[in-house]
Design a protein that fits this description.
single chain; 436 residues; mainly alpha; 21 helices; globular; transmembrane; cell membrane; transferase
Length: 436
């Protein structure tokens, strides 16, 4: 009597990708510590922000005020805690139970896992459906993007931005997802800058998603008041608007328009016309994002909104620019799909801009004792990120109009989204089940 063979366990592409991302992230975190702790420049900056976060976690555990906390850095001087109370409660209270070495390794490994999730989601949005190709590309791109300058600085300082990017990107897997807005709201409750995406939802008339984002944001604020009422009142009562607590806005790593203007005008005092200019840039950037959405390219709208937020924020440190990573991946896939040489060259140039710290190579100071007296070419080098962001917003509408023909709204008001998918001879059951 013969017996039928027993099928062994099958692992879907998500399980395989998750395991590969976890192992790769841990290896990269260990490698980053090994490389940067042996570099005379970066070793002085290693865990500079994470130490403040760990102190904030300890402060919460001790029942003291978060906003009386000041950590003295040998390099940067007094460093206060900058984020809402909820961020310290969720992330830094448990992390503060570990010694600094273990905490930095855990924090960076999990940050890189979040980057791997960002890569996986972006590949899905770009139309990669072959499961094997998607797993391999996720690991390869995780390794490559880990050495982009925004990610390197994030790992060196021990920053939080990768988690915010992941939360926001989860909302843009589908233009009209049922729960769209929750990720944006939670991210904004952890750090207010993602509120720019609520503006994008409003401009594209996705009222339900905008309402969900606002309610999720208010929910995080409410939880903060329930757990740390005094600190929440201090933060949301006005401290949130004090951008000067983040450091000198004219410091070269501040790659926002405000940072660029401060360096050009040699002052960190906001003039009224600064606000008018930033308002115009915000409106124009959201116009570009809305144009992309109406042409069926919601992901490009998300990217335009992200760049707009980075430009108009008073402080956008280099590590804040992790939001360009999904755009670069998407453009690389587009260039391959369409055999678009121009897009491939543009993506390569973006990779150079966001990999090489050019201002340091030419001898421009990172944190000057006073605003720097720079020549015109030096001003451009010192503000490569905002210059690149402005160029993308200026050239973006021309490229979108050329490559995305107008689409007509459905009877319910939704706009069909155009997705470029690499042709496949066949698609497996697992592929069809994968989301974004």
């Amino acid at each position: 009597m013969s017996s039928s063979p027993v099928a062994g366990p099958r692992f879907g592409p998500r399980v395989i990708a998750t395991a590969a991302v976890v192992l790769t992230s841990v290896a990269l975190a260990v490698l980053a510590a090994y490389v940067f702790l042996r570099d005379p420049y970066w070793s002085l900056r290693w865990t500079v922000d994470l130490k403040v976060y760990l102190a904030a976690g300890q402060t919460v555990r001790d029942g003291q005020s978060l906003y009386d906390l000041v950590v003295q850095s040998p390099l940067y001087g007094p460093m206060p805690y900058m984020y809402p109370p909820l961020t310290a409660i969720l992330f830094f209270v448990p992390l503060s139970l570990l010694p600094i070495g273990a905490a930095s390794l855990v924090w960076n490994a999990v940050s890189l896992m979040a980057l791997g999730a960002v890569v996986w989601i972006t590949l899905g949005i770009a139309g990669i459906r072959d499961s094997r190709a998607k797993v391999v590309l996720t690991v390869v791109l995780l390794v490559l993007t880990a050495w982009l300058l925004p990610v390197r600085v994030q790992l060196i300082a021990g920053q939080i931005n990768m988690f915010l990017l992941l939360l926001v990107l989860l909302d843009f897997r589908k233009p009209f997802g049922r729960w769209m807005g929750i990720g944006i709201g939670i991210a904004a409750g952890l750090k207010v800058t993602p509120l720019i995406f609520v503006g994008y939802l409003v401009f594209t008339k996705r009222w339900k998603a905008a309402r969900t984002a606002v309610l999720a944001f208010l929910g995080t604020v409410l939880v903060g008041f329930l757990v740390k009422p005094s600190d929440s009142a201090t933060y949301w009562g006005g401290l949130v608007l004090h951008a000067s607590r983040a450091g000198g806005v004219f410091d070269t790593p501040n790659q926002s328009m405000v940072g660029a203007m401060s360096r050009v005008l040699r002052t960190d005092v906001f003039a009224p016309w600064w606000f008018a200019l930033l308002g115009l840039v915000a409106l124009y950037g959201l116009f570009v994002a809305t144009l992309a959405f109406r042409r069926g390219a919601d992901f490009l709208g998300f990217s335009a909104a992200a760049i707009t937020g980075l430009l108009v924020s008073p402080v956008s440190w280099e590590h804040h620019w992790v939001y360009v990573i999904p755009l670069m991946i998407w453009l690389a896939v587009w260039a391959y799909q369409k055999r678009a040489v121009g897009v491939a060259i543009g993506t390569a140039l973006l990779s150079v801009v966001f990999t090489v710290r050019v201002f340091m190579i030419v001898g421009i100071q990172e944190s000057p004792p006073r605003p720097m007296d720079l020549a015109v070419w030096q001003q451009v080098i010192a503000s490569l990120f905002p210059v690149t962001g402005l160029l993308l917003l200026l050239l973006g509408p021309l490229w979108i109009r050329r490559n995305f023909p107008p689409v007509h709204a459905a009877p319910d008001g939704t706009v069909p989204q155009q997705v470029a998918i690499i042709p496949q001879a066949r698609r497996s059951t697992e592929d069809r089940e994968m989301v974004g």
